[in-house]
Amino acid sequence: MIIEALALMGTAVVPEDAGEAVRPQPECPAVASPAENLVSPASYDVYRNGKKIGEHSIRLQEDSGRLVADVRTRMRVKLLFVTVFRYDYASREVWCGDSLQQISTEVDDNGTDIKVELTADEIGVLENSHGRFATTNHWNPAAMQASALFNTITGKVNKVTIQPIDAGQSGATTYAVTGDLNIRSTYDDDGNWLGMQFRHKGGSEIEFRRTDEVPGAVSADTQAGRP
Fold first, then answer.
1. Burial level of 58, CB count in 10 A (0-12/13-18/19+)?
2. Is residue 24 part of a domain?
3. Nearest alpha-carbon partner for 75 in 66, 84, 62, 67
4. What pTM does this model have?
């Protein structure tokens, strides 16, 4: 598809320190940040079939009027004390208000290196095709209003249908994301991301549970129905 091809045009090798440096950007006017009500940093444990295999973190900070979102994931699967699978993910998004200006991602998927970079011009093309741009980094609650998400791992646009579902929790909303992606993702009433559940392509149940305290929010255990 043309849109996927455009996304892949933004896939490129980026410097090893890309997750640590913000490229020069045009001046950003004083506008509301999509993270205005969000608690940062945010920490999560990652589970596979109920067993913890890693950690996930989100850090939101301001830089010259822009919002910089740094996202990290580290997972290890061991068998008899031997690591049989490893996964490391690092992504940085730069926003001016509700407009994404830049994204870069580096992934080590069990020895396979994946690097994705998308510039403001390429993001603009995708916005014109799909409306306001959102990514699969989950921290931004506005993503739950989108019909397409930029996959920060594959560099492709995923078409999705997103609907709130009644998960029986108070103070939070769970969304069913279906289509090119199939996950359940939960946010509190202020938009803080509490976690998600999905089935990995190998059949394993993967779950992200928030571990830090969010004032007024239900815990990840409560929203998932665990005692």
1. buried
2. no
3. 84
4. 0.80
Domain containing 111 equals 2-18+34-221
Total tally of structural domains belonging to the chain? 1
Helix (H) or strand (E) holding 125: helix 120-130
Indicate whether 28 belongs to any domain.
no
Rounded distance between C-alpha atoms, residue 15 and residue 210, angstroms: 30
Q: Which residues contact 52 (CB under 8 A, 6 or more apart)?
A: 45, 46
Which amino acid is located at 172 in the chain?
A
Alpha-carbon distance 125 to 6, whole Å?
8
Bridge partner list, 57: 43, 72
Q: What is the pLDDT along the chain (227 residues), one digit of tens a residue?
A: 323 322 333 333 333 444 444 455 557 776 677 888 899 999 999 999 999 999 999 999 998 889 999 999 999 999 988 999 999 999 999 998 888 889 999 999 999 999 999 888 877 767 666 666 789 999 999 999 999 999 999 999 999 999 999 766 788 999 999 999 999 999 999 999 999 999 988 889 999 999 998 765 444 444 444 44
The Cα–Cα gap between 43 and 195 comes to 10
DSSP 211: -
| 227 is a domain residue | no
DSSP structure class, residue 18: G
Decide if 29 is inside a domain: no
Tokens of 65: 């009027």
Indicate which CATH number applies to the domain containing 129. Answer: 2.50.20
